[in-house]
Amino acid sequence: ETGVTQSPTHLIKTRGQQVTLRCSSQSGHNTVSWYQQALGQGPQFIFQYYREEENGRGNFPPRFSGLQFPNYSSELNVNALELDDSALYLCASSRKLAGGVDTQYFGPGTRLTVL
Amino acid sequence: AQKVTQAQTEISVVEKEDVTLDCVYETRDTTYYLFWYKQPPSGELVFLIRRNSFDEQNEISGRYSWNFQKSTSSFNFTITASQVVDSAVYFCALSGGNNAGNMLTFGGGTRLMVKP
Questions:
Q1: Is there a contact between A32 and A23 (Cβ–Cβ < 8 Å)?
Q2: Is-contact A64 A55, C-beta < 8 A?
Q3: Nearest CB to B44: which of A57, A103, A107?
Q4: Which of A17, A34, B23, B103 could bond A46 through an S-S bridge, CB–CB 3.0 to 4.6 Å?
Q5: Taking CB atoms and an 8 Å limit, are B108 and A41 in contact across chains?
Q6: Interface touch B102/A44, C-beta < 8 Å
Q7: A69 to chain B nearest CA, in Å?
Q8: What are phi and psi of A109, to 5 degrees?
């Protein structure tokens, strides 16, 4: 186990609703990244948070937003849910390195179904 | 733009066979990092290995080995004497040393089925 936790495990919402997903990072990690994994595909980068600020964003619309808290935990918020938002949402934690890239360790994911 | 291609979408082998999963990448970064992750049916991505672009040494860890070749932009993964527990989806991923956020770009994954 990585020590990265996510909640809830599963979630069912209807189109147009809003959802909040939560992630607790591994001890000693200060960076959290979020990924969306549609069925049968590889994960797609949504954004990353470091020091409570967004530190990079993938090709996702503004209705995908996030927060990072002083304890390095994070939330992913999705507004105006669409059917295509149905996916596994993965959170990964890592350390911010001065020169280089740290390994990202993933949580178990939240399976979101939009009806 | 970065890209990772895993041409094999699904591989089926019988237990104890050796199997190689292919990964080809594209990047303009001079420094970059390659990763392999395993995703069992439970869904969690399990980190297997990380390789820096300036280190082309191949690596062996038990039944697992990795062959990194910069000349062909490939980072292939071999499982020797496969076991049923190796059944999973395997992802190759790339992170550029210069990109903001150090995002991982994943391939489409290879589903490995090991039959008893």
A1: yes
A2: no
A3: A107
A4: A34
A5: yes
A6: no
A7: 17
A8: 90, 160
The residue type of B43 is: G
Question: Bridge-partner residues for B83, per DSSP?
Answer: none
Reply yes or no on whether the pLDDT at A114 is more than 90.
yes
Please report the pLDDT score of residue A74 as a whole number.
97
Residue of A42, A100, A103 with shortest CB distance to B91: A42
Torsion sign over Cα A112, A113, B3, B8: positive
Q: Which residue has the higher pLDDT, A106 or B61?
A: A106
| CB proximity list for A44: less than 8 A, separation 6 or greater | A35, A36, A37, A38, A58, A59, A60, B106
Structure tokens at A41: 């595909």
**B104, A104: Cβ pair inside 8 Å?**
yes
Mutate to test the interface with A, among B98, B102, B106, B110 (most CBs of A within 10 A): B102
> In the Cβ-directed half-sphere of A18, how many Cα atoms lie within 13 Å?
9
